[in-house]
Amino acid sequence: MCNQKGGVGKTATAVNLSAGLSLAEKKVLLVDIDPQANATSGLGIDYRCLKMSVYDCLYEPALTKQVIIKTKWPRLSVLPSTPDLAGAEIELVEKESREMHLKRVLTILHDDDVYVG
Questions:
Q1: Is the pTM of this model over 0.70?
Q2: CA distances from residue 55 to 9, 45, 104 in whole angstroms, order as listed
Q3: Distance between CA atoms of 14 and 6, rounded to whole angstroms?
Q4: Side by side, which strands form the sheet with 69-70?
Q5: Which of 20, 39, 88, 107 could form a disulfide with 32 if both were Cys (CB 3.0 to 4.6 A apart)?
Q6: What angle do CA 17, 41, 43 make, to 5 degrees?
Q7: Interval 72-98 mean pLDDT
């Protein structure tokens, strides 16, 4: 879900769609790319206790599979976020090909036969 405006239901839609797909027996990975980490916490994960998040994956895509957390719902996992992600926006602003960092993370997941949202 992507929209510049806040409060339009992006996170709620993403979390509910992910849960629905998992209940329909689809393997789902919810990628939380918001520094507020509401999708992460909405799936019952306390982001304050995480040692790594999607932030780390942006710099080291090879870590991606290690960072993924299984939720209490079968077939539903999350690539969690933390407030650290806000720093990536500032840190990457002057980097060449900054828009490719997330693509590299998602490419690692491409072969896992999973819905990524």
A1: yes
A2: 23, 16, 13
A3: 14
A4: 69-70, 76-79, 28-31, 115-116
A5: 39
A6: 40
A7: 88
